[in-house]
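[job 4471] stage=fold_predict status=RUNNING
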Amino acid sequence: MACSATVAAHSHSRLVVDRFGYDSQMELTDSQHEELTMLTNGRWDPRKGKSKQTGVALYRIGMGLFVILVISSCVFVSYPLSEFIFLGLALLVLIPMIWFKWKSRQTRDLARAHDYFLCPWCRYLLEDLDESGVCPECGTAYEKGLCQELYRSAFAPVQLESKARLEKERKAWRLAILVRDGMFDPDEPQLDPN
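[job 4471] inference complete, writing C-alpha coordinates
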Protein backbone atom coordinates (compact mmCIF):
# COMPACT_ATOMS: atom_id res chain seq x y z
CA MET A 1 0.00 0.00 0.00
CA ALA A 2 2.77 2.46 0.91
CA CYS A 3 4.67 1.51 -2.24
CA SER A 4 1.71 2.31 -4.49
CA ALA A 5 1.22 5.69 -2.78
CA THR A 6 4.89 6.49 -3.36
CA VAL A 7 4.62 5.55 -7.02
CA ALA A 8 1.45 7.63 -7.44
CA ALA A 9 3.06 10.64 -5.75
CA HIS A 10 6.16 10.47 -7.94
CA SER A 11 5.77 13.13 -10.66
CA HIS A 12 7.34 11.00 -13.38
CA SER A 13 5.47 7.75 -12.72
CA ARG A 14 4.29 5.86 -15.78
CA LEU A 15 2.32 2.70 -16.35
CA VAL A 16 2.75 0.33 -19.26
CA VAL A 17 -0.79 0.17 -20.60
CA ASP A 18 -1.40 1.42 -24.09
CA ARG A 19 -0.19 0.39 -27.50
CA PHE A 20 3.08 2.30 -27.62
CA GLY A 21 3.85 1.46 -24.01
CA TYR A 22 3.22 4.66 -22.09
CA ASP A 23 0.40 6.32 -20.20
CA SER A 24 1.80 9.40 -18.57
CA GLN A 25 0.31 10.36 -15.22
CA MET A 26 1.93 13.81 -15.22
CA GLU A 27 -0.17 16.95 -15.18
CA LEU A 28 0.03 19.37 -18.07
CA THR A 29 0.66 23.07 -17.61
CA ASP A 30 -2.08 25.50 -18.66
CA SER A 31 -0.42 26.27 -22.01
CA GLN A 32 0.13 22.56 -22.69
CA HIS A 33 -3.50 21.83 -21.83
CA GLU A 34 -4.64 24.59 -24.21
CA GLU A 35 -2.48 23.09 -26.98
CA LEU A 36 -3.90 19.62 -26.28
CA THR A 37 -7.44 20.98 -26.53
CA MET A 38 -6.69 22.70 -29.84
CA LEU A 39 -5.02 19.56 -31.21
CA THR A 40 -7.84 17.22 -30.28
CA ASN A 41 -10.71 19.39 -31.50
CA GLY A 42 -9.12 19.95 -34.91
CA ARG A 43 -8.49 23.70 -34.71
CA TRP A 44 -4.73 23.05 -34.85
CA ASP A 45 -3.20 20.11 -36.68
CA PRO A 46 0.50 20.41 -37.55
CA ARG A 47 0.32 17.03 -39.33
CA LYS A 48 -1.92 18.58 -41.98
CA GLY A 49 -0.12 21.91 -42.22
CA LYS A 50 -2.56 23.91 -40.09
CA SER A 51 -0.63 26.14 -37.70
CA LYS A 52 -1.91 27.12 -34.27
CA GLN A 53 -2.34 30.75 -35.30
CA THR A 54 -4.15 29.76 -38.50
CA GLY A 55 -6.47 27.46 -36.57
CA VAL A 56 -7.41 30.20 -34.10
CA ALA A 57 -7.83 32.76 -36.89
CA LEU A 58 -9.97 30.42 -39.02
CA TYR A 59 -12.14 29.60 -36.02
CA ARG A 60 -12.75 33.30 -35.34
CA ILE A 61 -13.26 34.11 -39.02
CA GLY A 62 -15.68 31.20 -39.34
CA MET A 63 -17.69 32.40 -36.37
CA GLY A 64 -17.71 35.94 -37.80
CA LEU A 65 -18.81 34.71 -41.22
CA PHE A 66 -21.60 32.72 -39.62
CA VAL A 67 -22.87 35.82 -37.82
CA ILE A 68 -22.59 37.88 -41.02
CA LEU A 69 -24.42 35.18 -42.97
CA VAL A 70 -27.29 35.13 -40.48
CA ILE A 71 -27.54 38.92 -40.35
CA SER A 72 -27.25 39.34 -44.11
CA SER A 73 -29.89 36.71 -44.75
CA CYS A 74 -32.29 38.66 -42.54
CA VAL A 75 -31.42 42.18 -43.73
CA PHE A 76 -30.46 41.90 -47.41
CA VAL A 77 -33.04 39.40 -48.66
CA SER A 78 -35.30 42.12 -50.02
CA TYR A 79 -32.51 43.96 -51.90
CA PRO A 80 -31.86 43.25 -55.58
CA LEU A 81 -28.82 41.05 -56.30
CA SER A 82 -28.74 39.83 -52.68
CA GLU A 83 -27.76 36.35 -53.87
CA PHE A 84 -24.31 37.67 -54.81
CA ILE A 85 -23.63 38.36 -51.13
CA PHE A 86 -23.99 34.65 -50.46
CA LEU A 87 -21.69 33.84 -53.39
CA GLY A 88 -18.96 36.03 -51.90
CA LEU A 89 -19.37 34.44 -48.49
CA ALA A 90 -19.30 30.98 -50.05
CA LEU A 91 -16.02 31.80 -51.81
CA LEU A 92 -14.53 33.06 -48.54
CA VAL A 93 -15.37 29.74 -46.93
CA LEU A 94 -14.57 27.38 -49.82
CA ILE A 95 -11.12 28.66 -50.80
CA PRO A 96 -9.46 27.90 -47.41
CA MET A 97 -11.29 24.56 -47.24
CA ILE A 98 -9.96 23.52 -50.65
CA TRP A 99 -6.43 24.66 -49.78
CA PHE A 100 -6.37 22.68 -46.50
CA LYS A 101 -7.80 19.61 -48.22
CA TRP A 102 -5.07 19.77 -50.88
CA LYS A 103 -2.38 20.27 -48.23
CA SER A 104 -3.76 17.36 -46.20
CA ARG A 105 -3.76 15.06 -49.22
CA GLN A 106 -0.17 16.04 -50.04
CA THR A 107 0.95 15.25 -46.47
CA ARG A 108 -1.01 11.97 -46.44
CA ASP A 109 0.80 10.76 -49.57
CA LEU A 110 4.16 11.79 -48.10
CA ALA A 111 3.41 10.01 -44.81
CA ARG A 112 2.34 6.78 -46.52
CA ALA A 113 5.42 6.77 -48.75
CA HIS A 114 7.72 7.02 -45.70
CA ASP A 115 5.95 4.58 -43.34
CA TYR A 116 4.28 7.39 -41.36
CA PHE A 117 7.63 8.40 -39.79
CA LEU A 118 7.45 12.21 -39.94
CA CYS A 119 7.85 14.77 -37.18
CA PRO A 120 4.35 15.50 -35.86
CA TRP A 121 5.20 19.17 -35.31
CA CYS A 122 6.83 20.17 -38.63
CA ARG A 123 6.31 17.17 -41.02
CA TYR A 124 10.09 16.67 -41.47
CA LEU A 125 11.04 13.21 -42.81
CA LEU A 126 12.66 11.23 -40.00
CA GLU A 127 13.01 8.02 -42.01
CA ASP A 128 16.83 7.86 -42.02
CA LEU A 129 17.22 8.92 -38.36
CA ASP A 130 17.23 6.96 -35.09
CA GLU A 131 14.14 5.53 -33.37
CA SER A 132 14.13 8.50 -30.96
CA GLY A 133 15.99 11.76 -30.91
CA VAL A 134 15.62 15.41 -31.83
CA CYS A 135 14.10 16.61 -35.10
CA PRO A 136 16.76 18.48 -37.12
CA GLU A 137 14.15 20.84 -38.60
CA CYS A 138 12.24 22.12 -35.55
CA GLY A 139 14.40 20.87 -32.65
CA THR A 140 11.65 18.96 -30.82
CA ALA A 141 12.12 15.48 -29.39
CA TYR A 142 10.46 12.59 -31.22
CA GLU A 143 9.87 8.88 -30.77
CA LYS A 144 9.23 6.67 -33.80
CA GLY A 145 6.28 4.70 -32.43
CA LEU A 146 4.54 7.86 -31.29
CA CYS A 147 5.11 9.65 -34.62
CA GLN A 148 3.76 6.68 -36.55
CA GLU A 149 0.76 6.41 -34.24
CA LEU A 150 -0.15 10.08 -34.71
CA TYR A 151 0.16 9.97 -38.50
CA ARG A 152 -1.67 6.66 -38.81
CA SER A 153 -4.56 8.00 -36.75
CA ALA A 154 -4.86 10.96 -39.14
CA PHE A 155 -4.20 9.27 -42.49
CA ALA A 156 -4.95 5.56 -42.13
CA PRO A 157 -7.11 4.14 -44.95
CA VAL A 158 -9.44 2.50 -42.42
CA GLN A 159 -10.43 4.59 -39.39
CA LEU A 160 -11.76 3.48 -36.02
CA GLU A 161 -15.11 4.82 -34.94
CA SER A 162 -14.93 8.49 -34.09
CA LYS A 163 -15.03 8.37 -30.28
CA ALA A 164 -12.39 5.62 -29.96
CA ARG A 165 -10.13 7.35 -32.51
CA LEU A 166 -10.40 10.71 -30.73
CA GLU A 167 -9.58 9.17 -27.34
CA LYS A 168 -6.58 7.33 -28.78
CA GLU A 169 -5.40 10.47 -30.57
CA ARG A 170 -5.82 12.57 -27.40
CA LYS A 171 -3.52 10.20 -25.47
CA ALA A 172 -0.96 10.27 -28.28
CA TRP A 173 -0.98 14.08 -28.52
CA ARG A 174 -0.66 14.37 -24.73
CA LEU A 175 2.42 12.17 -24.83
CA ALA A 176 3.81 14.07 -27.86
CA ILE A 177 3.52 17.36 -25.96
CA LEU A 178 5.33 15.86 -22.96
CA VAL A 179 8.10 14.40 -25.17
CA ARG A 180 8.46 17.70 -27.04
CA ASP A 181 8.78 19.72 -23.83
CA GLY A 182 11.32 17.30 -22.32
CA MET A 183 9.03 16.18 -19.50
CA PHE A 184 9.07 12.58 -20.70
CA ASP A 185 12.00 10.46 -21.84
CA PRO A 186 10.96 7.40 -23.89
CA ASP A 187 14.36 5.79 -23.21
CA GLU A 188 13.85 5.94 -19.42
CA PRO A 189 12.84 2.60 -17.85
CA GLN A 190 9.11 2.32 -17.26
CA LEU A 191 7.60 1.61 -13.84
CA ASP A 192 5.65 -1.62 -13.78
CA PRO A 193 2.50 -1.56 -11.59
CA ASN A 194 2.76 -5.29 -10.76
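[job 4471] summary: The chain has one domain: 11-180.
[job 4471] exit 0
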